[in-house]
Amino acid sequence: MAARAVLQRRFSPAPITRSKTTSAQYVAARSIDPTFEKFMDNYKHLIKVIAVQDLILASPNEALPLPLLSSAAQRLHVRRGAPAFLRAFPHVFSLDFSSPSEPLVRLTPAAAQISRDESAAAASSSTAAIDRLSRLLSMSPSGSLPLRAVFKVWRELGLPDDFEDSIIAGNPQIFTLRDNPKEPNTHILHLSDNYHTPNPRFTPAVEQWRSEERSQPESNAAELEYAFKQGFPPGMRLTKTFRSRLKDWQLLPYAGPYDPLPSVGVGRARMEKRAVGLAHEFLSLTVEKMVELEKVSQFRKWLGMDVNIRDLFLDHPGIFYLSTKGKRHTVFLREAYAKGRLIHPNPIYGTRMQLFNLVLLRKRRSDIHQPRTSSGNQECRGRG
Questions:
Q1: Per-residue DSSP letters for 66-87?
Q2: What is the per-residue pLDDT for 200?
Q3: Average pLDDT estimate for 77-90
Q4: Residues 6 or more apart from 19 whose CB is under 8 A from it?
């Protein structure tokens, strides 16, 4: 009952006096969505697999000495040791004993091909990558972001492996790298003045939903002007008070993610709603419509989000879902998923789901050499 009370007091779009709860209590009090939790229960293994894969691909001849992987096991959260981890995913990794000195860890032919396909998909969509990076920079009031923060999310944004050369250096009319005066040996990525906010070319992703809703015969344009699509976890109790506050919050005006910051101070409620709009757009720019909370936090101050990011996601369970599986906090954009699937898959996402399929096979015997699906329309519900 205590957890439910915390949930009802804190899950409210309206400005309220928050109860004195710890972060752990607040997270524990959220309504659980079994579909997303089941997905993350399997996806947490893919995260570790990709980390090991990156080490292999960065090694000479794409072969990583087993002792080097063992020494990095703790940092990669491979707690049972490198050999046990490799044995758990035989469709992704193989051991090469041809070296007289030490075994070498390689990708299987199927996993290596998937890696090449993902790199090719990212390289072939450079126009979309430029657009996503430009949008991210345009959400910053200064039109600039630390390069190291961008590096944190390059894979989530679907940028090419060499994006610093192919995207940034290759488009000097759009992007500029400058030294960070506050931190030696670091750089700030700037958007050129011609592309800086306010930029009417960029329309927030939420406007697509609003446009679709306005086309409905019984729609109310005034109610949709500042509204967000809502969809709540199964079993979440929506009280009459909650619904009333949500309705008021949906009507609340706010400055969009590509709009200039108001020249005069605004109330906290509007500031928080702007932060919701920024977070919504940030997630919309990602390939999988999901990202680790820690990575979003890297951009908080640069995007002008003067709020607690974790609480922001928890306060709006109809828009976002926060999972804690794998000892990490991962945020999903609810409206991007339906019945456990990404509604609009893309080629980069498709290749990742092919690797996910190999991870899900684990130690099962199979003569499958090609992933079962090429559409990338992978269900969030894991296979056992």
A1: HHHHHHHTTTTT-TT-HHHHHH
A2: 62
A3: 93
A4: 5, 6, 9, 10
Helix (H, G, I), strand (E, B) or coil at 229: coil
DSSP bridge partners of 338: 341
* Maximum Cα–Cα distance across the chain: 74
Give the C-alpha separation, 146 to 130, whole Å: 17
- What are the helix (H) ranges across 175-256? 206-214, 221-224, 240-251
Sequence-separated (6 or more) residues with CB below 8 Å from residue 160: 119, 122, 123, 126, 129, 166, 167
Could you tell me how many helices (H) and strands (E) the chain has, helices first? 16, 11
- Alpha carbon distance 243, 12 (integer Å): 9
Decide if 150 contacts 133 (C-beta within 8 A): yes
Q: What is the pTM of this model?
A: 0.88
Is pLDDT above 50 for 305? yes
Q: Which one, of 236, 244, 226, 233, lies nearest residue 280 by Cα? A: 226
Give the three-class secondary structure for 335: helix
In sequence order, the β-bridge partners of residue 73 are none
The percentage of the chain sitting over the pLDDT mark of 70, rounded to a whole number, equals: 87
Q: Give the integer Cα–Cα distance in Å for 58 and 42.
A: 25
pLDDT surpasses 60 at 2: no
Residue 268 phi, psi (nearest 5): -65, -35
* Continuous H helices in the chain: 2-10, 23-28, 34-57, 66-72, 82-88, 109-124, 126-138, 147-152, 163, 206-214, 221-224, 240-251, 268-285, 293-297, 309-315, 347-361
DSSP readout, 131-150? Answer: HHHHHHHHTSTTSEEEHHHH
Token look-up 């430029």 returns 130
Q: Render pLDDT for 39-71 as a digit per residue (tens, 0 to 9).
A: 999 999 999 999 999 999 999 999 999 999 999
Terminal C-alpha separation, the chain: 32
CA distance 277 to 312: 11
Per-residue pLDDT of 218-244, as tens digits, reads 989 999 999 999 999 998 999 999 999
pLDDT at 103: 94
